[in-house]
Each structure stands twice: as C-alpha cells, then as structure tokens.
Design goal:
The chain has 192 residues and is mainly α. The chain folds into 2 domains: 47 residues, Orthogonal Bundle (Arc Repressor Mutant, subunit A); 114 residues, Tetracycline Repressor, domain 2. It is 69% helix and 0% strand. It is built from 9 helices and no strands. The longest helix has 23 residues. It is elongated. It starts with 10 loop residues before the first helix and ends in an 8-residue tail after the last helix.
C-alpha cells in the first residue's frame, strides 16, 4: 500500500481532517476505541466512508493519524532559568504524559497504523523540537549544552523503551537520573 498524504494545507482538506479527527475523539469517548468503525466516524464527521478510506486507507491508519496529533505538545517547555532545571522539568512531563493510560494508547495507535514509519518520525520530531527549545534558551544564557541527539538517545529513548517494554520505574526520579547521565557525559542511562 502506498503512503497517503495525511495533511494537506488549508481549504476543504483541512476542514475534513479537523472534522474527522474531532469525530474520532468524540466517538472514542462515547463508545470506546474497540467499537469504533469508519461508517460511525464518517457519519459523525459529515463525510462519506469513501472519503476516509481514500484519505487514510483504514481505521487503524486514521487512529494513528489522530494519535500523532494528540501527541503533539501544546505548549513550549517550562523556562526555569537554567538548563538542568528545564531538562528535568521537560523529561518529567514527557514521561508523565507518555506513560499515562491515554499516552500509552496514543503511542500504540500511532505505531500500529504507521507501516512506513512516518508517524513515528513525526513523534520523534516533536520531542526533538521541544529539546531544541530548551537548548536554545540555555545557549542564550551562555550555558554549555549537549547535542539534541544525545538527549534523544539518553533521555527520550530509555523512557520510550520502558513505557513499551519494561514499564516499571516510570517516575520523576528516573527521568531526573536520565537527565543527570545525559548532561554529565556518563555512558550509562539509568538502572537495568
């Protein structure tokens, strides 16, 4: 199956995407994810089922697209005045949001309907953008900063691995430990 364009700028396409996404979110709240069908979503969104199939392919790809949008951060990371405090606060919030039951469901949906990795890439870009904001602030304050990719590898990756495969110890102390290891230059990234 060839990849479909998920987002087109402006006009009718943007209105369709917005109404379909809203319909999915409402219906999941009303009937649950497992009872959701394309015809139900289409009826609620005021489009034909063929519009959804043409644009998203199937229900799982639609759920994936909605999940990716829900995983997009709504605000910039907190500015607490120094790199360490900003990274600690961001990592703790990231862990809390991703490890929550809705966060886990969005991660699952984002990955299940993502045969070519496009949605995973968008989610990764969201995390990198947030880290870049924190690092840019630190640079303006004259603080030395690690590379974004180092923080992805030493903070984001272990958090996501634990959420997906080893869900124990998902707490603020773990997030802070990962940040400590990342900014101190130590090769390890936390407990085993």
């Amino acid at each position: 199956m060839s990849p479909r364009p998920m987002v087109r700028p402006g006009g009718r396409s943007a209105r369709v995407q917005k109404s379909v996404h809203a319909a999915v979110r409402e219906l999941v709240g009303e009937v649950g994810r497992d009872a959701l069908t394309v015809p139900m979503v289409a009826a609620r969104a005021g489009v034909t089922p063929s519009t959804i199939y043409r644009r998203w392919g199937d229900l799982q790809e639609l759920l994936s697209d909605v999940a990716v949008e829900r995983l997009r951060p709504e605000t910039e990371p907190a500015d607490l005045g120094n790199l360490r405090a900003d990274l600690d606060a961001w990592a703790e919030q990231f862990l809390d949001e991703m490890a929550s039951p809705p966060g886990r469901a969005y991660i699952r949906d984002a990955l299940l309907g993502d045969p070519d990795g496009t949605h995973a890439g968008r989610c990764s870009a969201y995390a990198a953008e947030q880290i870049d904001i924190v690092l840019a602030r630190a640079v303006r304050r004259g603080e030395p900063v690690p590379e974004t990719e180092l923080l992805i590898d030493r903070v984001v990756a272990p958090i996501m691995y634990r959420i997906l495969f080893r869900p124990g110890r998902l707490d603020a102390a773990y997030a802070h430990e990962l940040v400590t290891n990342a900014v101190s230059g130590e090769p390890g990234t936390g407990r085993r």
